[in-house]
Amino acid sequence: MVPKKRIDEILDGYDTSEITIATVCSHSSLQIFHGARKMGFKTLGLTTKDNTKHYDAFPLAKPDEIIKYSDYDEMSERNGELLDRNTVIIPHGSFVEYMGANKFEDFEVPSYGNRAVLQWESNREKQRNWLTSGGVPMPRLITDAREINEVVMVKYHGAKGGRGFFIAKDYPDFKMSIDSTQPYTIQEYCMGTRYYLHFFYDPLKKDGYMCKHGGSLELLSIDRRDESNIDEMYKMGSIEDAKRRGLYPSFVVTGNTPVVIRESLLPKAFEMGENSVNRAYELFGGMWGPFCLETVVTDKLDFKVFEISTRIVAGTNPFISGSPYADLIYPGLSTGGRIAMAIRDASVSNDLKTLMT
Asked: For position 314, what pLDDT does the model report?
């Protein structure tokens, strides 16, 4: 990983009154650019593709400039032109997945957030240790596939937008679907309603819902996911019937739906978010900025956290104009805008190094 000392040296050479906010043209980039512009920043889109014409359709979210690279290796090699623009990178799920966690850790451009979290997020065993040791409830783990005697969810490591996840009801079902060349985990399948809780932790904020190590935890929005083709599989009858016809359930995320949960669940939601933040500081130096707890709520009104995403997630995209929760803190502000606000405020207070790795 690029040493923190090196990032601090780069920031020492920046004109902090002329910071450019950059991200890869994908995932949640529209709201990142839109939020950055609202906070007065220049914006820069990074891409290895030619499909950026759609930004012309959204002038308030179109980056001021777009740089095209042949691949992510070239992006890393040409980092000097980003440093010349006083660039701060905003990572999102697609950015890290496409570049690769190891390459992103070595990308010598200041990045918002703690890059050390990537090794804990992308490895599902380490992620489980982090969350459960912090008191966050998770689905029960099945360590031996031959012992599957209930419905389970199988997940491959890394952020793949649900691609490759599958349900199995027994060992033969598991063997029929598994790609044994990839690392995976097997969890009990929790029946309930899926809610994706979008938090933001600001280590510099001095009021609000305070955490153990100082700083304030905010709940900015909640969504549900539309997944193809599992959401329509019921029309084919049972999953077993569909499989006999050669149709296998898929959990690829295709869209997001806004949600408000019952207010009595909010104390539990904040407790899980707080425990995740507190344990992160104890294990790897902290997690700040946006993160998402991906949960199931059972009919007993208990949460089960089946995953954590430690950057801005695409589920925040329905809330570019704010959400019922963000409107009670920062009316009309998206998660992308909240990131830009944190960078702006840290620039003014000379705390930018605290937020960058």
From this structure: 95
CA distance 150 to 166: 14
Nearest to 87 by CA among 154, 30, 156, 7: 7
Token representation of residue 274: 């707080």
Radius of gyration over alpha carbons of the chain, in Å? 21
pTM: 0.91
Contact status, residue 284 vs residue 277, Cβ threshold 8 Å: no
The pLDDT, as a whole number, for residue 126 is 95
Hey, where are the domains in the chain? 4-113, 121-137+192-231+252-334, 145-189
- Asked if 341 and 40 touch (Cβ cutoff 8 Å), the reply is no
The pLDDT of residue 123 is 87
How far is residue 223's CA from residue 311's CA, in Å, rounded to a whole number? 15
**pLDDT for 13:** 97
Cβ burial 82-97 (10 Å sphere, 16+ → b, else e):
beebbbbbbbbbbbbb
Question: Which residues of the chain carry a pLDDT beneath 50?
Answer: 159
For the domain bounded by 4-113, which CATH number is listed? 3.40.50.20
Q: What is the architecture of the domain spanning 121-137+192-231+252-334?
A: 2-Layer Sandwich (3.30)
Rounded to the nearest 10 degrees, the angle between the axes of helix 266-284 and helix 124-133 is 110
Q: Give per-residue pLDDT as tens, 63-90.
A: 999 999 999 999 999 999 999 999 999 9
3-state class (DSSP) for residue 299 = coil
**Is 109 within 8 Å of 82 (Cβ atoms)?**
yes
